[in-house]
Amino acid sequence: MRNLRKTSLWLGLIGSVSLLPLPALAEDSRSPAAEPSFHDVAAPRDIAMPEPEPAAPVTITAGDLKPSDSLDIPLPDAPAVTLTASDWFRIAMESRLADEAALRELRLSRSERDSLSAFYAQAERPLAWARDGAWTPAAHAVIGQIRAADEDGLDPADYPLPDPGLRRDAAPAQWAEADLKLSAAVIRYARDARGGRIDLARLSPLITPKLELPEAGEVLARVSAAKDAGAALAAYNPQHPGYQALKARLARLRENHPSQPSVRVPKGRTLRVGMQDPRVPLIRARFNLGENKDRRNVYDERVASAVAAFQKEKGLPTNGALTPQTVAALSGPPVARMQAELIANMERWRWLPSDLGSRHIMVNVPEYRLRFFEDGDVIHQTRVIVGKEKSQTPIFSDEMKYLVVNPSWTIPPSIMKKEILPAMAADPYYAERKGYKVIRRGNSITVRQPPGERNALGYVKFMFPNQHAVYLHDTPNRKLFSAAKRAFSHGCVRVDQPFELAEQIFGKDGKWTEKRLRGLIGKGERYVHLNTPLPVHLTYFTVAVDEGGEVKRFDDIYGVDRKVQAALGLDS
Length: 572
Hints:
Layout: H1 2-13, H2 22-29, H3 85-97, H4 100-104, H5 110-122, E1 130-131, E2 134-135, H6 137-147, H7 172-193, H8 200-203, H9 216-225, H10 229-234, H11 241-256, H12 280-286, H13 301-314, H14 324-330, H15 335-349, E3 359-364, E4 369-374, E5 377-387, E6 396-405, E7 409-410, H16 413-426, H17 430-434, E8 437-441, E9 444-449, E10 460-463, E11 472-473, E12 487-489, E13 493-495, H18 498-506, H19 514-518, E14 526-539, E15 543-545, E16 551-553, H20 560-567
Parallel strand pairs: 3-14, 5-12, 11-13
Antiparallel strand pairs: 1-2, 3-4, 4-5, 5-13, 6-10, 6-14, 7-9, 8-9, 10-11, 15-16
């Protein structure tokens, strides 16, 4: 078969252009194998095979004996490839994004890293923050905003920045690394500005707001393309007036007390203008008033004015007298502690939706207060009773959908276990005396309190279905609203003057007025649905600025403030 191939090659060469030097052909012709012939094929006897025509003579000249020139087969021209600076930057960026170890150094979550890679893969330019070997105005703007993160209670150290002086002729790999570093800082800042600094589940199972954490790719696209990139990044912080008031207070505190002396004023009698006391020099030192050598221990008008200004700042009675309350406030907390309180309360504003709703209800648990807002104004407010320390009111937001007039009350399992079952075991007539209806189904017991004036929910409850099964409601025990501290409930929020609130919810021009709602009392359970769901926010603020601009402080009744400060590293 091999010889047959050789023959075919010979036949193709004879009478055509010689592709090989003749000596090579002659050498190959000396092969010991016999050349194939048609005579080798046995033909049938009854078929006459035509004789082949004699081959034409081959003449070999001297020129044929010379080596032939090498074969020159023309190839198509290859297109010229020129890599631009943009190409080199894109290659460097793709290489950096393919480096898993390098991406982990950015301290982003897996989903954030995936979004980061997708953003650069789809981007028109290889770098988001640099052009022609220099940082863009957008880059300088976000760097400035991140450096000022402490103005919003954030820590600039949490957002490492690239070298703003990176040389124009730096290698593309250096620019790719710097660009990614700035993108990671922007992503982390936006995430933390929307409440991503703390794992809320570790604080308490009763703190369950739905955080609006932004998607990393959307953050980069929005901020890098904004006319004012710094403002676009800053906008991820809460824009609510309550947050902005605390932010302004933090700036004022830092401005007015850069190095406030630490002075502890001992307890003693109440001081008024004209009285003498050895504590007066300490008070003067506290307010940087200087020493009065002639009347060193006299509580004079200048001291009283400084004390009055301090009382106003702290929300105390502004009378200028050195009362025990004023002494306690003067002796602490120090400036660092006050900053920590402000920052912890600013952090809890991040737990709220960016849009609270044009009409919404906000309950501040430590303040024992409910406010109804419409277009930014308080149109109704009232006292509330919140959960005890052992049965805390949860912190979250949801939407009110309906009211129930003349509600019955099915006692929750937690209250059954802790209170009702032990009481029934001790007193067989306990349920009857309370007006409860006991329902037995096999081995289970359900206790229900029918509608009426003795019902624990009063005459109306406001329903915003949620995982905690809490709601706003009336109460038959109205005298508890006169107490200064009102943490008495099992977790629900009891509302003073609930029918006034109901009328505000439906609107004064609506058909469900307070009078009409009260007319349903005693007529069985009635469900009244809202035309539009109403946002309800159960919040926890221990420091707030009221409508008059005054700072108010409230007791940390559940220890949430302390836990938030610890989580943010502010408790040292």
